[in-house]
Amino acid sequence: MPKPNQKEKNKSSEKPPEETPECEEEGATAAATLSNILKELKEFRTETTGNLAAIKKDIGEIKKDVSDLRARVNAAEERIAENESRDIQMTKVLFHVLRTQKQLEEKCQDLESRSRRKNLRIYMIPERLEGSDMVNFISKLLNEKLGIMGVKIERAHRVSANGGGRPGSTRPRSVLVRFQSYWERQRVLSAAWSKKEIRLNDTRIFFDEDFTPQVYAERAKYISVRKEMRARNIKSRILYPAKLKVFGANGHVKVFDTPQAAAEGLKEFGITMDYQTKEEPNFETLLKASGWQSPRRRSGRANDLTSCLKTLLSSMAHLNATEDE
Predict the structure, then answer these.
(1) d(Cα 13, Cα 10) in Å, to the nearest integer?
(2) pLDDT of 220-252, one tens digit each?
(3) Which residues fall within 8 angstroms of residue 246, CB to CB, at 6 or more apart?
(4) Which residue among 24, 68, 174, 310 has its CA within the 20 to 30 Å range from the CA of 226?
């Protein structure tokens, strides 16, 4: 049997190291630390479980709110569609009302113009010259200046003009004379127009027809250009309702139906007419000015709201899928 060598004897004779107090203290500390970690992990798990439950509850409430919003949006879209349909019908009715109103205005203006056919206006008669009886004064005036007698006059009176007859105004008010028939008025007017000049107490007076305010406003646009034509010895005349008749050289005659046409046509005579074109607004412009908008434009907000809700629903679906994983 072989004998163990000296090294093996020395190894077998060595004893394991004894545990010191320091090692025991380190082991106890590690055990306590591990216990604390396990405790904290349990608390974190409990807290996380509670938070997830609260999140699930909040998600459920959000789903309910989104579902309610979807129902409300659908109901709102239905009401908007009904309102748009009703608005289209009301717009058609409004178009009809506006057209009818324009026709009625034209008819009223025509009736007013016809009711004034028996009227005659005399301009530049000095104030208070008529005394207390205007009808008797006009009868004598027609007899003395025009040689017309026995004219039947219904009434005659001064007409308030822009400042005429007021303190500080030098222009007297015009006199409105109403005859019993159109033919009597026309006879007086023709006699007055046949005379080049009629004077009363060294004051030149003028006879003319009686028109509506709208016609006077249109005729007033020719005042400045007619002065320029008189300065150039170009004869002109205003026809009813507001047409300008120009007598050119060599018997050349032109008639302009509107002030706008006159502004363009007078350039041929070397005359510039200061006239600003004013376009009449159409029905759609009037509706837009009153706050009307097309149905397509109004439905844009509802479409935007629907798009936002769809995006929110898509995000909620993605969140639910992540939670399930």
Answers:
(1) 5
(2) 888 888 888 888 888 888 888 888 888 877 778
(3) 229, 234, 235, 236, 253, 254, 255, 256, 265, 266, 269
(4) 174
pLDDT band per the 50, 70, 90 thresholds, residue 278: low
Q: Where are the domains of the chain?
A: 30-114+296-325, 117-210, 215-278
Class of domain 215-278: alpha beta
Tokens matching residue 75: 């109901």
Longest Cα separation, the chain: 184
Q: Which residue has the tokens 């306590």?
A: 32
pLDDT band of residue 164 (cuts 50, 70, 90) is very low
Tell me the two tokens of residue 175. Answer: 């006199």
Q: Give the Cα separation of 51 and 28 in Å (integer).
A: 35
Evaluate whether 263 touches 255 at the Cβ level (below 8 Å): no
Q: Nearest Cα to 255, choosing from 222, 288, 291?
A: 222
Strands, E assignment, the chain:
119-123, 153-159, 174-179, 198-200, 203-209, 235-239, 243-247, 253-256
Rounded distance, CA 254 to CA 262, Å? Answer: 10
Residue 157: how many CA atoms within 13 Å on its side-chain side? 4
Q: CB-based burial of residue 256 (10 Å sphere; 0-12 exposed, 13-18 middle, 19+ buried)?
A: buried
How many helices (H) and strands (E) the chain has is answered by 10, 8
What's the CATH number of domain 117-210, 3.20.20.370, 3.10.450.50, 3.30.70.1820, 3.50.50.100? Answer: 3.30.70.1820
Stated pTM of the model = 0.57
DSSP string across 37-61? HHHHHHHHHHHHHHHHHHHHHHHHH
